[in-house]
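One such given next:
>
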Amino acid sequence: MTTTDTNRRSDVDPMNDLLAWLEENWDPDLTVGDWWERLGLAGWAAPMLPADSYGRGLSRGDAMRVQQTITSFGALGPPVGMGIGLVSPTIVTHGSRQQIDLYVREAVTGKKGWCQLFSEPGAGSDLAGLSTRAVRYDDVWTINGQKVWTSGGQMADLGMLLARTDPDAPKHQGISWFAFDMHQPGVDVRPLREMTGNAMFCEVFFNDAQVSDDARIGDLNDGWKVANTTLMHERSGMGAGGRGGMPSARAGTVAGDLERRAGDFVTRRPQRTQTTDTDGEKKRPSPAQTYVDLARTFGKDKDPVVRQGLAKLHMMHELARLSTERHKAVRASGGDIPGLANLSKLLMGHTVRHTRDLGMQILGPRGLLHPSDADGRETLADEVGGAAAIAVTSQALGAQALPIFGGTDQIQMNIIGERVLGLPKEPGDFSNVPFKELRRNG
């Protein structure tokens, strides 16, 4: 079956095409790398991308159905992470044909793993205030500076690097976006251990590291526009909720999963029993069901306050789902909903905080215990609530992250106010002041 054949659009439900393709192509004895090569080049790894850029041109709703169908079939899903969700749509929008065929192809086939080199110690919410410098010598840029809160930096082959290429320009106008090689001298990646016990984030130091001008995505000094494309996809993904635990191996050369057997990463998950309503239509299980079950385990299912919290959690998830469906319908008719990505991220921030409070309310004193290592997880797994209670305490400790990363709640509200509602900007417009003349922290 050729790539042309597999990328041909059908007038029928794309899930029928996908199922037929899986029947013909899924082989659990393939290596992860070989399977992802098939999946990515057929357009099923990143189905929202255009058909001529390693995708299928599907809507977000249909793309989520693709992931669910692959899981239900029992096949290994596509590479999870920034390569597909953030890098690929950004490069498809702003990159050249050569860059799409290099970076997007490597992302959808899992050949390279990515991280995001945006935030800095003195420029978090004020991302455009970044000070990492890029100085050009012929066709090579020399990079010096520091990044922080870099998710998965220790596992990445490449990074989405924002660097200041013109300090004489206003801060939003002197930035460029690079595809940066993480495996080179002058790059120091230091994992940051969190209170959850994990080390998802890193700080990264650059000391005369280099990147070719060929790796610049978009026009010189126009990286702010490119970065906004990246951030828009990040916020949309957060608002939509993600893939819900879909099994997958890790992309890139560092993790070492590409040479392993694809079938070893697949586990059949028990399917929740679907009920039907009075009209005979199938009803989806509530996203709050895990917390409903936990409330029963801890004898809190009759508590009126807990019950009200469970109902609110269900409604918040339904609002997120209906917003996605509404956007899908509007986009299908050629329209758009300004600010929906920002509104969706705000809603998801409220949802994770409510989930944190509800979970701790259900657990009671048990919520004060959280494992920091494998031995602790094994010990607490035998206590009341088991693994579900551990998941709740993990969620509670990490709940404040989402309202901060990808742009704080306050940033989202500023964007909605200024760009959607047309409200005036806050006093003190420095948009025309050269960056080097601005006062900065530290």
